[in-house]
Specification:
Layout (H helix, E strand, L loop, with lengths): L6 E6 L2 E6 L10 H16 L5 E6 L10 H6 L4 H21 L4 E5 L2 E3 L1 H8 L2 E5 L3 E3 L13 H9 L1 H10 L3 E2 H7 L4 E3 L4 H13 L3 H13 L5 H15 L3 H12 L9
Parallel strand pairs: 2-3, 3-4, 4-6, 5-7, 6-9
Antiparallel strand pairs: 1-2, 7-8
Amino acid sequence: MSSYKTINFDIKDQIAYMEFATPDSANAMTSEMAQEMAQVSEICLTNFKLRAIKISGQGKIFCGGGNVKAFNEEGNNLEKYLETMATNLHVAIANFARCKAPVISIVQGFAAGAGLSLVGASDFVVSSDSAKFTLAYSRIGFSPDGSSSYFLPRIIGIRKMMDLMITNRVLSADEAMDWGLVSRVVPEDSLIEEGQKFVESIAKGATSAIGMAKKLLVSTFEQSLESQMALEHLGIATMSRTADCKEGFKAFIDKRDPIFNGS
């Protein structure tokens, strides 16, 4: 396991594991944590053998948003501190978004502020049935960051996003599921087991095809119909050269489940 101060990071069986490791402060975001996330995301982005990336948090809370106590201690240096933190956090999120391997967040307790931003930027989210979701930026006089104003409106729509941003509404796991923020809701006492099962099932997929699908979805709102279909055309033709495509065809003809290797 790699050595960082605010997160734990490891790669095992082609799955990357990033765990927030400051449970005593609700895994709240600091400049140091954002910097370490950026470093980890670069490792993930450049490791083409990865099949999945799992993000989780130690303790009772996934990520409680920004570390307001640390912010307050910065005094007159706060603006510079936030600029550095946001820059690194945004590098991390951009890298994760561009990883071929899908990103799966496992959420317990609260996903607040930057935690909810990360939920929005994830490809899949497995939530405990007791988890809560809130932005809460405006509650401390901040505007949103962490890609929340990019990914979340695309997932839930402008009206609901405005509600989250301005009223600091807290969503239950079931409400988050109804809004499309999470992929699965499981009982709290089985979150670790079910979350890991889900990660491992996704890691068995056709990783190159998943990566291409991610690229298509990220670009879809910026493209015209014709240009998006041109990207689809290029994508599906490119996938035809992959080992996973050949295995998928063979498994279909042989009437068996495919065994993909991610290439």
